[in-house]
Write a structure and sequence with these properties.
- The chain is an all-alpha fold.
- The protein is built from 2 helices and no strands.
């Protein structure tokens, strides 16, 4: 009988200075992050996915 492979998942530590910082993942800590830009990127991906589906299926949606 073959025994299953088990792996222990150990969370990565960024260091004690980050664990003590409550504002570690706030937008102030990441000034380049813009939620509106992320939303625009998601919309772009959806449009590209629709175009790919039209190419694969050969017909477009019934708009």
């Amino acid at each position: 009988m073959v025994e299953p492979i088990t792996r222990e998942v150990v969370p990565m530590s960024r260091g004690p200075e980050d664990e003590q910082d409550p504002e570690r993942d706030t937008p102030e800590r990441h000034p380049g992050f813009d939620p509106e830009r992320l939303y625009d990127l998601v919309q772009l991906v959806e449009v590209i996915a629709r175009i790919v589906m039209v190419i694969i299926n050969g017909d477009g949606p019934s708009w």
